[in-house]
Amino acid sequence: MEPVKSPMDLNPAVKSTGAQGETVGEALRRQGISRRGFLKFCATTASLMALPPTMIPRIAEALENARRPSVIWLSFQECTGCTESLTRSHAPTIEGLIFDAISLDYHHTLQAAAGDAAEAAREEAMKENYGNYVLVVDGSIPLGNPGYSTIAGVSNEDMLKEAAAGAAAIIAVGSCSAFGGLPNADPNPTGAVSVQEIITDKPVVNVPGCPPIPVVITGVLAHFLTFGGLPELDQLGRPVAFYGQSIHDRCYRRPFYDKGLFAETFDDEGARKGWCLYKLGCKGPTTYNACAVTKWNDGTSFPIEAGHPCLGCSEPKFWDAGGFYEALSTPTTDIARTAVYAVAAGAAAGVAAGALNKANKKRALSEHQTTTLDDLSPGT
Amino acid sequence: MNRGDALPANFDIPVRVTEEFTGNVTPLLHEVRHALGALLDKGEQTIIDLRSMPLAPGEEAHIETALGQGEVRVELNALGRSDIIETQYPGVWLITHSNTDGTILGKYIEIALIPDILQAQEGDIQAGLEQLGDTLKTTSTENDNGTS
Amino acid sequence: MTATEWLLWARGPAFEIATVILVMGIIVRLIEILMLGRKENLAAPKGSATTGGLRTIVSRSVPDSGTFQRSTFTIVAGYIFHIGLFVVIFLLAPHILVFSKLTGLSWPALPTTIVDAFAVITILALIAVLINRLNNKVKRYLSGPMDYIVWALTTLPLITGYMAFHRIGFSGPMLIALHIMSVELLMIAIPFTKLSHAFTLFLARFYNGAVTGIKGVQS
């Protein structure tokens, strides 16, 4: 699927037949939301998708006519933090409304049905909307032994492959499904891999984060809902709208980094004055996410604002990227010990080489032959 | 229990905002000035999404103070509360959308004669027209019943 | 390999390899030099070897007026980039953290903007000495490929560091990975090239000074 880059590419007709063919506009009005409320919804949706406010009328038009897509949400090796992130925001937020505007046909944590009934619901939704549904995945997939994680006796790998086959779009929510996450951390006992390591014939939108920012999850859903396509993605498959800039580049503490004013500990003068957290291990310079702008807890703040360095949770291998509290410039290994060994080895080798040089010199001296006049006289 | 109750009354998170951090405030005010000029000359409308730029704690309040308050103040109830305030610069509106819990969903500066969201919407007018028609029909039927 | 993997490699195994080569290489070199020893001096000393050695470390670092007039550019540009390298390497906060992890020692940093200015001046000075080397017939004649390689290895970390700080051209992880890897190349090259003068220079000056000092001559 081509990424949507300009308003000209808009394709409001999402061909899903989910939820009785109701459009998003109809669904919202059925909930008693006025046109003004709808405009407000569109304005905040534009913010949600990191689109300029000039796009609001286009969004309104597209959303009015968009069919509610069927969404199947699969959870593999995960901690449910991603789902918590999405559902624990205060209701009714715009995220909540976006969620209402889709037809969530399978999510085994949230749905009322269980066991065979739940699996039947999934199979039915997949059959009915084959080729049109949105597949959301959180959690990594164990390849080491399928028994590490199964649902209704089906291995995660098989279930993912089956569900992906009929999906119009695949969204990997959370660092585990996007990059392997915690299960994939060294030594990766379950052989955990990300979605895109298994599904290679379809584009996968990665929405990493541990957990991802709720508005980013819904922002991607909103994009699919509004434009019927996938947003523009970066090299790691993340939507550029949210992951286009690093935490460091959008950090309000950046001026302190530029000036070289750093907090040295969590309770020193610098920490109290809100100086840069680089020395305390902030991974902001290498982390791409929208935290500094969208913030957390309904826009209250984000980790750096609360005085804690960025852990880099939306980047691959963030668990193995050196200590959370080790500065980005420092080596990840015990370099002091290595240096001590190197000094010892160097000293031994140096002494050996020196001794060899001395022996060579001595030998050269002992083998030295004095040139006599006879050697120099020609013809001898 | 309120979240705040968990903390002792004298608890003070010791982070002070000592200066303007990001330097986004002044450029933003310039942007507003240009937009206002464009509104006057070309009738061009502009919306600035305040939540789309990184602002340090206190900077949003700083912007609001700089814009001040003008003559109009409207409270809208649609999908939660929205406050639409004309700033001290006529044509510059500060719009705050909240949800039903009072949580702020978005903040915008709109440079327009009147913000779009304040105008009655066609769909709603249509619905209102039908409703009024129905009401009148019912009333006249009742009246007819009363006289006969 | 993704940018993150490059960065992890640069901060992990690559830094270990570079440190081992640098430390071992320099220690071997120094011990070899020290074990060369000196012939026993049977003459009665006319002065102190230590004082002479220390004096020469200072005196050879200050150009005499004749030399200065003959090679003003070489001396000024040379001083600028050497001081610049010192400031950039040892007085930038993120760099001090590396030394601190290696040695446990720490010292105050200069404000980043000042170090940034030093970096720019140092890069300009290094470009100037390269141009001078290419334009000066004698210098060009005396220069071999290794001289240009050594120049590039010294300049590269400055350029990648400048790019990393100002975030030009690559993603965040890649910028830092490139900078660290360019430094690792330099670290590996030091023991095997003229760059080892960073560790042998003052030893050599002390030796020269000590030889003359013991003869009661100032050098």
Structural commentary:
The complex is a heterotrimer of chains A (380), B (148) and C (219). Chain A has helices at residues 24-30, 35-48, 56-65, 81-87, 94-101, 115-128, 156-165, 175-179, 214-227, 240-243, 254-259, 269-272, 291-294, 335-366, 373-376; strands at 70-75, 103-107, 133-138, 141-142, 150-151, 154-155, 167-173, 192-193, 204-207. By secondary structure, chain A is α/β, with parallel strands linked by helices. Chain A has two domains: 7-242, 3-Layer(aba) Sandwich (Rossmann fold); 245-354, Cytochrome-c3 hydrogenase, C-terminal domain (Cytochrome-c3 Hydrogenase, Chain A, domain 2), CATH 4.10.480.10. Chain A has a five-stranded parallel β-sheet with strand order 2-1-3-7-9, sandwiched between helices. In chain A, a hairpin with a 2-residue loop joins β5 (150-151) and β6. The N and C termini of chain A lie far apart (92 Å). Chain B has a single domain (18-139), classed as HupH hydrogenase expression protein, C-terminal domain (Ribosomal Protein S8, Chain: A, domain 1, 2-Layer Sandwich), CATH 3.30.1370. Chain B is built from three helices and five strands; from the N terminus they run αβαββββα. Chain B has helices at 25-42, 59-67, 122-147, and strands at residues 46-49, 73-77, 81-86, 92-98, 104-111. In chain B, a hairpin with a 5-residue loop joins β3 and β4 (92-98). The longest helix of chain B is centred in the C-terminal third of the chain and has 26 residues, at 122-147. The termini of chain B are far apart. Mean pLDDT of chain B is 80; it is low at 1-11 and 13-18. Chain C contains eleven helices and no strands. In chain C, α1 (3-11) packs parallel to α10 (172-189), α2 runs parallel beside α10 (172-189) and α7 packs antiparallel against α9. Chain C is mainly alpha-helical. Chain C has a domain at 63-200. The chains are: A alpha/beta (380), B alpha+beta (148), C mainly alpha (219).
Concise summary:
Chain A is of the alpha/beta class. Helix content of chain A is 38%, strand content 9%.
Question: Which helices and strands appear, and what pairs or packs with what?
Answer:
The complex is a heterotrimer of chains A (380), B (148) and C (219).
Chain A: H1 24-30, H2 35-48, H3 56-65, E1 70-75, H4 81-87, H5 94-101, E2 103-107, H6 115-128, E3 133-138, E4 141-142, E5 150-151, E6 154-155, H7 156-165, E7 167-173, H8 175-179, E8 192-193, E9 204-207, H9 214-227, H10 240-243, H11 254-259, H12 269-272, H13 291-294, H14 335-366, H15 373-376
Parallel strand pairs in A: 1-2, 1-3, 3-7, 7-9
Antiparallel strand pairs in A: 4-8, 5-6
Chain B: H1 25-42, E1 46-49, H2 59-67, E2 73-77, E3 81-86, E4 92-98, E5 104-111, H3 122-147
Antiparallel strand pairs in B: 1-5, 2-3, 3-4, 4-5
Chain C: H1 3-11, H2 13-35, H3 49-59, H4 65-70, H5 72-90, H6 93-103, H7 112-135, H8 137-142, H9 145-166, H10 172-189, H11 197-214
